[in-house]
Amino acid sequence: MRSDRGQRAPLGLKIAAACGLLFLHLPILLIFVYAFTTEEKSFVWPPPGLTTQWFAVTWNRPDVWDALSLSVRVAAISTAIALVLGTLCAAAVSQTRFFGREAISLLVILPIALPGIITGIALRSAFALADIPFSFWTIVLGHATFCVVVVYNNAVARFRRTSGSMIEASMDLGADGFQTFRHVVLPNIATALLAGGMLAFALSFDEVIVTTFTAGQQQTVPIWMLEELIRPRQRPVTNVVAMVVVLVTLLPILFAYYLTRDGDQIAGSGK
Amino acid sequence: MTSAVSFKKVSRHFGSVRAVDAVDLEIAPGEFFAMLGPSGSGKTTCLRLIAGFEQPTAGSISIFGERAEGVPPYRRNVNTVFQDYALFPHLNVLDNVAYGLMVKGVGKAERLKAAEEALSLVRLPGYGARRPGQLSGGQRQRVALARALVNQPKVLLLDEPLGALDLKLRENMQEELKSLQKVLGITFVFVTHDQGEALSMADRVAVFNDGRIMQVGTPEDIYQRPNTRFVADFVGSSNVLPPDFVQRYSGQHRWGSLRPESIRVSSATSGDGVAARLVGTNYLGATTRLALDADGLRLHAVVPAGTSLPPEGEAVMLTFNRDSLHLMDETA
């Protein structure tokens, strides 16, 4: 049987596809709608009335700002750590041959393959064992474990496509190690790092499980949301924050996708 | 006079593999020097030792009298044209050529002017704004050449630079490289596995095998007077003759070599010469290559096209000039 490109898909298939997409995205749209509802105690359908007052309420809630600021700082610093470590690791694995290379490659990817709860428990017991008090930095460390993977995956794919003799050519033309990195290596892996960094940022921003195990009293945005759902008070504020989170995570992922769409990068966004 | 490049008992071993094994080599300033050998013979490793990408396991290397061991590639006044050209894909052609001057801190206007001149030298003026990806293989090759030459190296290293080009382009580039080298007077060291290329371009050729130099000499030396069976066979596929055979014609019990074009083939069945049987003909255009069987000894002869030949399988008589039978130093 031939499948012509111009042939129209059967109606049943179209309906099934539409249902699948609706199932995936309708709940997200509902969250957006409830951000404008006038009912504050519970979510009733249809909303009794529409209002934009919750945006103002959210703006004036200090706990929202604390959570947002913590999340952004954690995501930024974890991403920065991941960029440095992930790039170094990718360079080592793809540019040189050494004993245990494959094993290291696997060990680096492992944190993203393991369930988050394992990573969380492992880190929590490690911190307890080493007598490290839970703080901003323990959250950052927890997030860095899986952020490194995303950067590593992107960088290693790019390094594989970069000719090894280019680095030799640069050295041959008189550039030392630092100049070679700055003028040849970095421009060639820049888009891969940008894409990896954005994915890492997005992953860190909405991470719950590892954070619950590694955070002390602080609340990142997702943790704050969970708390809000248990103690109903100005419920639509949660929805307003959810909208912001969706936008903050979606835009970088779209941009990263756009940057690497003609490449062969493995995004590794399975968390 | 100081040699441009001097190897003294240089070895480079990778574990148990002796890529380069106790090599002695002197390359004169301004010379066009070819390193010829099959793949894995150590010629590329020798080039990388000069460039500084490899360090010798033993022995000493000097470049224009300066010791080179331990000196990193970026502090040697030597530049390389890589086999895959290794152009920087994120820079345009002009910035590629100006790269060496850029990292040395030469001002922008000055280095772009020098790069433009280097592009004219390789007959690519006005190509500066293009990306390497927009060029053909031959053009990329010229950019790689310009990028190396703009630094005014004392020694230019070329690693199989013509390997990726088609035949016509390769012939043009051979002539061009040779005249460029004459004009610039820079020492060229050229690695190739193509004996025709080495013979046609180089002032002197070193033939490599198994990490050692088998013979160094002018193309004529190498071709006419090979000193070992390997050189005779690798350079121009000479007929290597066993000592017993050679003794009958020269009186000396030594290995000999006889060029295919030195053998005359006639269909006479008696008289002076070597009786043989024609087992195959191979039409090559200007010449015809004959496979011959002389009592179990496989020989090749090259005769001009149009020579009248007996049909395959017939007996023929081979004659050759005694002077063209070259006796090799190699012990029998």
UniProtKB/TrEMBL annotation, chain A:
Domain of life: Bacteria
Gene Ontology process terms (BP): transmembrane transport
UniProt keyword list: Cell membrane, Membrane, Transmembrane, Transmembrane helix, Transport
Subcellular localization, as worded in the UniProt entry: Cell membrane
SUPFAM superfamilies attached to this UniProt entry: MetI-like (SSF161098)
Membrane topology reported for the UniProt record: Multi-pass membrane protein
Gene3D superfamilies listed in its UniProt record: MetI-like (1.10.3720.10)
Keyword Cell membrane in record: yes
Domain ABC transmembrane type-1: 68-256
Principal cellular location given in the protein's record: membrane
TM regions (residue ranges): 12-36, 70-91, 103-122, 134-156, 240-259
Keyword field contains Calcium: no
GO cellular component: plasma membrane
Protein family per UniProt: Belongs to the binding-protein-dependent transport system permease family. CysTW subfamily.
The protein, known as: ABC transporter permease
Organism, as annotated: Mesorhizobium atlanticum
The organism's taxonomic lineage, starting at the top: Bacteria, Pseudomonadati, Pseudomonadota, Alphaproteobacteria, Hyphomicrobiales
Automatic annotation (TrEMBL), chain B:
GO molecular function: ATP binding; ATP hydrolysis activity; transmembrane transporter activity
GO biological process: putrescine transport
SUPFAM superfamilies: MOP-like (SSF50331), P-loop containing nucleoside triphosphate hydrolases (SSF52540)
Domain of life: Bacteria
One GO CC annotation: ATP-binding cassette (ABC) transporter complex
Secretion signal span: none
Gene3D superfamilies: 2.40.50.100, Nucleic acid-binding proteins, P-loop containing nucleotide triphosphate hydrolases
Keywords carried by this UniProt record: ATP-binding, Nucleotide-binding, Transport
InterPro entries, alphabetized: AAA+_ATPase, ABC_SmlMolc_Importer, ABC_transporter-like_ATP-bd, ABC_transporter-like_CS, Mo/tungstate-bd_C_term_dom, NA-bd_OB-fold, P-loop_NTPase, Transp-assoc_OB_typ2
Domain ABC transporter: start-end pairs: 5-235
Protein family: Belongs to the ABC transporter superfamily.
Protein name stated in the entry: Polyamine ABC transporter ATP-binding protein
